[in-house]
Amino acid sequence: MDLSASEEVQVSYLNSILRKVNSTEENFKETFVKSPEYIELLSQFELKEITTKQILKWINESTKQQEKLNGIKALSAIFNIGGNDIGRCCLDKDDDEGGTLKDLMEFIEFDKEVVQESIIEMLSIACSQKQLLDKGSDVDVKANAIEGLAYASLKPTVKETITYHPTLLKEIFKLVKEQEKSNNNLSYGVTVILSNITSYKKKLSKDDQHLLKLKKMAEGGVRKGENEKLETNPLDEDEYVENRIKQIMKLGGIQSLILLSRNQSQIIRQLVSLNFLNLATNQMNRGMIVQQGGVKTLIPLAIKDGNTKEGMNFATQALAKIAITMDPNLAFRGERSSDLVRPLLNLCQGEDELSQFESLMALTNLGSVENDIRMRIYDSKGIPIIENLQFSENTLVRRAATECLCNMMFCEPVYELYSDVNKITILVALSDVEDFETRRAASGALAILSTDPNVCTMILDRPKGIQILKDLFNENSPEIQHRAIECFKNIAGSDKDKAELLVKAEVHKRMLELVKESKVESVVVTCAEALKILSNYGLLNI
């Protein structure tokens, strides 16, 4: 071959090689790579750019899917045997023609799935990884390689490849540490890669599933009448996501996210917040997040203006998950946990029921530690927000709201606020619902509030007030029994007339039984105290 031939001759020769290549997908790449004429041509540095651009043109102009696939596989072969110079050429987006990466990305979403898969496989494995692992590549080239991986990591197979590559994630995290704050493109690309790898698949509602099935039918994927299960790629199932998250945390992902959070870009901070939420979704990961300083990073992301509204919600959700399952004294040691009250209340006002539930649970746990937090909830006008969720159609949300309010009864302004007929009526009604935890919380609130004689009157004035407490009294749960007995003891102690109503309802008979039968000290002691009050009035002969 004449190596001094003109460019037109070289391109023509390349095209002749492409035409001679076996077109079957299975052995296209192998045949192409083993072509001695092509390797000789490729060895000439000045022809490398011509080669890649010609194949790219061939891919773009082709209307046949198989030709596109063959061209993509040709590019992959070039990257694998052509050295890092080709990778730099393809990742360089500053030239007038944009570079291979940019051009490929402009048409990828308009092609069929099989073409997209081939493109991203080529980008991630043959091109981007090579540049990231090459110590000779400069930062800009590596940043462009990161962008290539960010596009590619949308695909499940690439998520797995990146996660379990022996050195790739380590190199990415090392790059984050070296380029802290100085390269927004790189930081953005890394946060996108991590969020793609760690994000759980969206749980579809019945309406969403129906729309997806209609879409599949329109595309010819599901015929009318078929009962095919519409599933995502198995690699996006929770088990695979959780394993990828474990690997990322093992390799230093938390520390990298902490570094990335220092970037001033709001969108980068939003993605960092999302990544922390993904990591915190599995309860087993939360201890490591706390140990490595994640809480200290998340609190500013939840409360400061440097994040987007959505990002602040992500950070707050992550903190709520941590606050639910860990001792607040340990998880938030040295941090101003009271600053979380407003963000958590904001989540309570959103539409996502899981966020409502977790925020209520977090407020309950945080409020159980410090009265300052209970006062912050009250001062932030949180009581009406929490009360509103007692009417949610979701049982878990109703339960969590009632438990949170029960905990708030230890806050003096809330205690005084609940000396109200309407509020007591709601608590009495909730003490009679089917859900055990809701009954327990509502009756617990009544037990606290009944230390006020006015509340005792309100309870007795309810049409079924005494009967509902008697029903609680007769349950097998010592927790529920104790709450009912506390209410009866406080009612009896408020005045003799009310005590007579209890005797008339034969409440004392069940108390005498529990004194003899119960093995729970708090139940026995409280029954004895209530019976003594009735005896002191002369209503019983004991």
Automatic annotation (TrEMBL):
<dbReference type="InterPro" id="IPR000225">
    <property type="entry name" value="Armadillo"/>
</dbReference>
<dbReference type="GO" id="GO:0051879">
    <property type="term" value="F:Hsp90 protein binding"/>
</dbReference>
<dbReference type="InterPro" id="IPR016024">
    <property type="entry name" value="ARM-type_fold"/>
</dbReference>
<dbReference type="InterPro" id="IPR011989">
    <property type="entry name" value="ARM-like"/>
</dbReference>
<keyword id="KW-0963">Cytoplasm</keyword>
<protein>
    <submittedName>
        <fullName>1687_t:CDS:1</fullName>
    </submittedName>
</protein>
<dbReference type="GO" id="GO:0005737">
    <property type="term" value="C:cytoplasm"/>
</dbReference>
